[in-house]
Here is the input.
Amino acid sequence: MSEMSFEEMLEESFVTIHNGEVVEGTVIDVKDNEIILNIGYKADGILTKSEYSNNNDVDLTSEVKVGDKMTVKVMKVNDGEGQVLLTYKRLQQDKMNKIFEEAFENKEVLTGTVTAALKGGLSVAYGEGRVFIPASLVSDIYERDLSKYENQEVKFILTEVNPRKRRIIGDRKVLIVEEKKKLQEELLSRIEVGMMVEGTVKNLTDFGAFIDLGGADGLLHISEMSWGRVDDPKKLFKVGDKVTVKIKDINDTKIALTMKLDENNPWKDAASKYAVGTIITGKVARMTDFGAFVELEEGIDALLHVSQIAIEHVEKPSDVLKVGDEVTAKVVDFNEDTKKISLSVKAIEIDNQKAAESEDAEEAEASEEAAPVETEAPAEEAEATEEIAEAAEAAEEE
Here is the structure.
């Protein structure tokens, strides 16, 4: 039996490795972009930065030191240059896949960090693994911009785990829906009709405002924002405003709100303030073909019908009035049940006309009483006059 050469003995001393095999090595050098390990093979193993971690910003020199032991996986025994290519992150991914499978089976809630907001969803780091949360499963509402989630921690459950296809899919929406339902139930259990509550304006529409009450949203309809007329909710509120509202109605999970309270109800003492016959002054708030609505105070408008604008005929209210004009008129009708008040400028003009006519009549009567009255002359004067006349006639005869 021939003796083995030194080279043959050296070759014989090295272990045999295969692609996919898990081996242990010792770090013999650390560079910025790669780690070199002695794995007991005739060639050293090369662990690149990209195969060490998914984090492109990782600093290998601070993560690993010469002499450290590492368990790695062989990707390729010979990369064409006689080097063995290794991976650390994929071995960790294999371990993570088992963790993901168990979490999927147990419906476990996981917490990870969003590493990137992609076009179709979020990439989330969990341990050494990666989870993708589709945009449709990020929230219970549509969100156009997902960038706000970057570097944020998010909770999710797994809906699909397929390591072979590298599909680890997460769902955040289901947790949000469950949490909101829980908070909603808690809120509904402690609120009742008539209660005053605080909330935050969450969304504004043409017909009202949605108020976040801390567990559920309530609707503050445009007609319930003020006793007065509101044309645009956005002129009164902005998203984020804190408001105090009253629970008007609760129908299943729908909550109706109001800001029209008894203490700020302008109709509370309107019957005495605007009794029939009262002369008031207000501003034209809006115009119609049949008349003008005059605002007496916030929450109380009165109708000045076209037929009551003036004594003379008025074809259209806009021929005489415009929004913002100040009007002095007389209350000619008040209906508290229907909350309707009718005004008349014409009535004031008629009253003034009658007053003027009455004054003229009084002045004429006073003038007649003060004028000199012709009376019969005393008898002596008459006789004297006759005597004078007779004397004159006699003189003429002579």
About this structure: The chain has a mean pLDDT of 86. The helical segments are 6-13, 49-52, 60-63, 89-106, 173-190, 270-273, 345-370, 379-397.
